[in-house]
């Protein structure tokens, strides 16, 4: 294994969205953590452990990504480890996620504004 030096370290992932506080609350329900608003157009979710944050940025005219699809902008998605794929499904749906695909070892959902994410086991 090589001892490569990094240029930096990841502190967060940012999601464009139409309502930052609403989407932050959804992901807090999924991942836990503490919500820290920063005005009307930005909300941070500080994940448990305090090292990583997810930011939610207001984008007027937001359009959700298309999944699956080859057209449009490239996407990033989160893989969220869960102990049991089936047991995680009902709470995610209750929070507002939409199941769009189920495969051996993972399930694909869309968050309330259309960002894809996966539960993995």
Automatic annotation (TrEMBL):
CDD domains: VOC (cd06587). Residues 13-119 form the Glyoxalase-like domain. InterPro entries: Glyas_Bleomycin-R_OHBP_Dase, Glyoxalase_6. Pfam families: Glyoxalase_6. This is VOC family protein. It comes from Leucobacter chromiireducens subsp. solipictus. The lineage of its organism: Bacteria, Bacillati, Actinomycetota, Actinomycetes, Micrococcales.
């Amino acid at each position: 294994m090589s001892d490569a030096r990094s240029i930096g370290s990841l502190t967060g992932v940012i999601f464009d969205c139409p309502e930052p506080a609403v989407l932050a609350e959804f992901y807090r329900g999924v991942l836990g953590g503490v919500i820290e608003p920063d005005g009307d157009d930005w909300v941070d979710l500080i994940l448990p452990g305090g090292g990583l944050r997810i930011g939610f940025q207001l984008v007027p005219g937001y359009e959700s990504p298309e999944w699956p699809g080859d057209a449009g902008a490239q996407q990033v998605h989160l893989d969220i480890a869960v102990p049991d794929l089936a047991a995680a499904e009902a709470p995610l749906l209750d929070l507002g996620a939409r199941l769009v695909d189920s495969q051996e070892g993972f399930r694909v959902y869309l968050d309330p504004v259309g960002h894809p994410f996966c539960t993995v086991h």
